[in-house]
Known about the structure:
- The chain is an alpha/beta fold.
- It has helices at 9-21, 24-31, 35-49, 65-89, 102-109, 113-119, 198-206, 224-232, 242-250, 280-292, and strands at 54-57, 60-63, 94-100, 123-129, 143-148, 156-169, 191-194, 220-221, 237-241, 255-256, 262-272.
- The protein has three domains: 9-89, Arc Repressor Mutant, subunit A (Orthogonal Bundle); 94-161 and 266-292, D-Maltodextrin-Binding Protein, domain 2; 162-265, Periplasmic binding protein-like II (D-Maltodextrin-Binding Protein, domain 2).
- 37% of the residues lie in helices and 21% in strands.
- The longest helix is centred in the first third of the chain and has 25 residues, at 65-89.
- The radius of gyration is 33 Å and the shape is elongated.
Amino acid sequence: MAPRRLPSLKALRAFEAAARHGSFSAAAGELNVTHAAISHQIRALEEELGAQLFHRTGRQVELTERGQKLFPVLAAAFEQMGEAWAQAGAKDTATLTVSVEPSFAARWLVLRLGKFNRAHPEIELRLLPSSDLVDFAREDVDIGIRYGLGEWPDVVSEKLFEATVYPVCSPALLDPKRPIRKPEDLKAYPLLHEETMQHWVNWLEEAGVRHPRWAMRGPLFIEASLALQAAASGQGVALANDTLAMADLAEGRLVRLFDIEMPDEEGYWLVYPEGMLKKAKVDAFRRWIREEAGLGPPEAPKPPEPLASARKASR
Length: 315
């Protein structure tokens, strides 16, 4: 099939601009040519077509019936060409899906994502906040951040943070009539619990308080971020995971009450299937988050433990 013969693209562009503006002068300004050049291009089109496209009425021009049929088709064609050219010139983007423990996402990761986006504009980040263990074999997830002991089967695990806990509260909660000088003084304040009341009992015993049964009271929250939010709003004293509380402490929404801290057996881990670092987007995220966590250059990851030898993680 022989190719269709088309008129000059410059002439068609001149016609489309003049029709859109209703003016040869305005079209000339847009295309950075002279009024005479626009007039010449359109006259050449009309001669080739054998029909008039514009009615000339002084400085303004109006489309003829032929021109009215041609203009919308050409306008759409130039719009499509512009979009195609923009897409061809745009950098390729890659979507990186990260499954992340919700409290860590809200109180640490989201606060720093602007740095990652600026460093890697070619990567489109997609966060999936969830406390459930993701099945990398079945779900469309590239990498995850989990809280636990780090002994999950069939994934590479890299520890990001050693966690410690200690009491925090809002400065507004502190009452001079009920000073907090020693751990036993917390008995006069509401205690906020995350998941289980045993955490407070454990910390008080670590601080030297004997038989702190009075700690088994107060509201219970499903997630650490909710307990910290309640503490920041003055509802009571919470046990803070230092990783999650650092922003509130730095900005004065929370204050630390004692130097006594209890190490947490669990922590935050970066997890991914073996071989996933071959993907540039995953390797870029791993390098970035390790730097943000203060871990320095990444080391070669250890291979995942087989299912039979891995203990069940706490979360």
